[in-house]
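lol forgot to send this yesterday, sorry. struct tokens for the thing we talked abt
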């Protein structure tokens, strides 16, 4: 009768929220995906600003292409190096904390058990329940139990600096290719307008994706990146046109 009322089949009984995702490490995967979207956004904005600025000086494809490739390469290398250094530092810190926790568990297991129980008690469990939970989790995997609640670290989900650097560079390149193609393919009189439209549409998409991943309202993120990108393109074109005319 209960199954009929809830709409759950007998095979689903005892499986709460079976339609929800409970994948281990889902949060870190979403963070990496969001970082990739933002990396593509950086590639779009920086290279678009560069090629549009050069287009304000000359209509020749050669200088525009050279500037775009230089910006794409420099940006990808910079993103990769920055991500590698950042993730390496974070990973080193996490490994040091894991090593310290291992030593503490080895040298003072009873003290660590009491500490774990106190942490769960602080979260609202009764002393008896907190002690029982701490004992069971310690018996299953003492290190994972401690670092999860004390340090918010999953030992199986430590970031790889090389993977992070590669993903950052790749996302930047994928974003940077869009404005480079958009400004090279059309005739000279249409290059800047076509590039502006393509860039704003791409920025709107990245803004929507980042908002969806982060769980915020998409239209706000889209409006921010589109207005910011449009302003950036206008400024770089004006600067390129002004200084190009002055120098020549």
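and heres what i got for the seq, position by position
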């Amino acid at each position: 009768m209960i199954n009929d009322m809830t709409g759950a089949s007998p095979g689903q009984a005892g499986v709460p929220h079976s339609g929800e995702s409970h994948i281990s490490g889902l949060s870190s995967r979403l963070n990496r995906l969001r970082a990739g979207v933002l990396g593509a956004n950086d590639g779009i904005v920086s290279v678009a600003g560069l090629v549009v600025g050069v287009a304000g000086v000359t209509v020749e494809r050669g200088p525009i292409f050279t500037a775009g490739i230089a910006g794409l390469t420099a940006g990808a290398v910079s993103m990769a190096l920055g991500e590698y250094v950042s993730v390496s530092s974070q990973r080193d810190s996490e490994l040091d904390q894991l090593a310290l926790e291992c030593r503490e568990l080895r040298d003072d297991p009873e003290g660590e058990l009491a500490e774990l129980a106190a942490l769960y008690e602080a979260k609202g469990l009764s002393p008896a329940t907190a002690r029982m939970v701490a004992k069971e989790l310690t018996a299953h995997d003492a290190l994972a139990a401690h670092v999860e609640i004390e340090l918010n670290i999953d030992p199986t989900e430590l970031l790889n600096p090389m993977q992070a650097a590669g993903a950052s560079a790749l996302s930047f390149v994928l974003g940077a290719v869009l404005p480079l193609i958009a400004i090279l393919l059309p005739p000279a009189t249409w290059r800047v307008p076509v590039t502006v439209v393509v860039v704003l549409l791409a920025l709107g998409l990245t803004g929507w994706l980042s908002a969806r991943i982060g769980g915020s309202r998409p239209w706000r993120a889209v409006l921010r990146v589109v207005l910011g990108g449009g302003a950036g393109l206008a400024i770089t074109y004006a600067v390129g046109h002004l200084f190009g005319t002055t120098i020549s």
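The two ends are 85 Å apart (CA to CA). anyway ping me if u want another try
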